């Protein structure tokens, strides 16, 4: 009986081990370049270590999975090198094939005058600001005090993972996220064109870029790894390079409004414009299509949009849409220790510096930026007809994004 039990126990343990091994290798978890935490990364705590060292202060399951990740690094590094050699053969200048991309007026300058030392100092300052306010008990906002384990799975859908290069990107809509998603697709080789991975970010059609099935995001881990999903997330958060890009919160709102309500967008018209026009403009019997509505001169005003954001019924119905949801709710900056914080206001310089630090700058370049017409100087005009009390309420709603990411308080909009 004892031998039979030992045999059964051995079979079970071996089976569990093999299942875990298959899961890890199936998704190429071990293909990341764990050495990517270069000089731009702030010093990690003693628990953050390099491949091959002991994984201190991790639960047993984490330690077991971590060893699997580390052991597969050497085996997969040759695959990554071959991929890099293939990608570098691609064209240096992206070919713009989409009409929408063509009309944006790309800037092809190389910006050779960037100062890497200034960039390094800039990162230190941005990260210090974020850490200080996350640790400041007198500065509070919703969800600040919860742990990473407390974040619901569906709120992790903006964290895109590239296991090939050990990169995690939290995308923020209206902050160059289309092009950063393109970069992540090229790096992770998650999308093929006639059986070959895309090499040039701008070759990737926009409809594929925003297709959720294209990207591996944290919220998908549960379906793949079950109860081990949080353990794997924590390991990757320790080992991978994590970055996000942000933008002045009020300017981002203006950009979201222009994009979704000043242009004909059928989905946003049905989901958001019709309710706004009914609630705040007293319209009834509205057209069912956006083209008919625009033809009749029925458009959501910026005032309607602000009322919608401030209306307590909005959040009771459903969380803010991602295009105007606060960055702290999308990317959880007080729960995730980001290694790089980029800003749209310095996009060209930040993007080039980040790709260089990730050691992928010879594989691709960030798609050239276009000169965005939604500038900070426009805030006065856009908010001129918005009542002062509304502006003050709106600031409180987005105050955490202003403070955490070092954007000055728009005093001119918050006083008579």
From TrEMBL:
The keyword Membrane applies. It is an enzyme of class 2 (transferase). It is found in: Golgi apparatus membrane. It is a single-pass type II membrane protein. The chain crosses the membrane at residues 7-26. Its main location: Golgi. InterPro entries: Carb_sulfotrans_8-10, Sulfotransferase. The keyword Transport does not apply. GO terms for biological process: carbohydrate biosynthetic process; proteoglycan biosynthetic process. It comes from the Eukaryota. GO terms for cellular component: Golgi membrane. Its EC number is 2.8.2.-. Keywords: Carbohydrate metabolism, Glycoprotein, Golgi apparatus, Membrane, Signal-anchor, Transferase, Transmembrane, Transmembrane helix. One of its GO terms (molecular function) is sulfotransferase activity. Belongs to the sulfotransferase 2 family. PANTHER family: CARBOHYDRATE SULFOTRANSFERASE, CARBOHYDRATE SULFOTRANSFERASE 12. This is Carbohydrate sulfotransferase. It comes from Oreocharis arfaki. The gene is Chst12.
């Amino acid at each position: 009986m004892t031998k039979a039990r030992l045999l059964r126990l051995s079979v079970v343990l071996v089976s569990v081990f093999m299942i875990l091994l298959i899961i890890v290798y199936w998704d190429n978890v071990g293909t990341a370049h764990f050495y990517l935490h270069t000089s731009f990364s702030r010093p990690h705590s003693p628990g953050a270590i390099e491949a091959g060292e002991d994984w201190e202060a991790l639960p047993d399951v984490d330690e077991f999975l971590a060893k699997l990740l580390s052991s597969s690094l050497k085996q997969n590094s040759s695959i990554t090198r071959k991929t890099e050699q293939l990608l570098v053969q691609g064209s240096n200048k992206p070919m713009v094939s989409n009409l929408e991309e063509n009309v944006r007026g790309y800037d092809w300058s190389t910006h050779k005058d960037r100062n890497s030392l200034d960039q390094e100092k800039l990162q230190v300052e941005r990260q210090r600001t974020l850490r200080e306010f996350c640790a400041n008990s007198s500065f509070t906002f919703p969800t600040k005090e919860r742990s990473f384990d407390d974040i619901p799975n569906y709120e992790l859908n903006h964290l895109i993972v590239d296991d090939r290069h050990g990169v995690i990107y939290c995308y923020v809509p209206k902050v160059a996220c289309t092009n950063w998603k393109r970069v992540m697709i090229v790096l992770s080789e998650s999308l093929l064109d006639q059986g070959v991975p895309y090499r040039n970010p701008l070759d990737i059609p926009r409809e594929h870029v925003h297709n959720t099935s294209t990207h591996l995001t944290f919220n998908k881990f549960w379906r793949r790894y079950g109860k081990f999903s949080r353990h794997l997330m924590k390991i990757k958060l320790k080992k991978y390079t994590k970055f996000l890009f942000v933008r002045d919160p009020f300017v981002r709102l203006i950009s979201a409004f222009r994009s979704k309500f000043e242009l004909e967008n059928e989905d946003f018209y049905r989901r958001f414009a019709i309710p706004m026009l009914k609630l705040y403009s007293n319209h009834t019997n509205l057209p069912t299509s956006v083209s008919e509505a625009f033809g009749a001169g029925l458009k959501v005003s910026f005032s309607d949009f602000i009322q919608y954001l401030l209306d307590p019924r909005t959040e009771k119905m459903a969380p803010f849409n991602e295009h105007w949801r606060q960055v702290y709710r999308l990317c959880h900056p007080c729960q995730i220790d980001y290694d790089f914080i980029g800003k749209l206001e310095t996009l060209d310089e930040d993007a080039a510096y980040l790709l260089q630090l990730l050691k992928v700058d010879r594989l691709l370049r960030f798609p050239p930026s276009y000169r965005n017409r939604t500038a900070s100087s426009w805030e006065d005009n856009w908010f001129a007809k918005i009542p002062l009390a509304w502006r003050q309420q709106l600031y409180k709603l987005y105050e955490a994004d202003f403070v955490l990411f070092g954007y000055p308080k728009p005093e001119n909009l918050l006083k008579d």
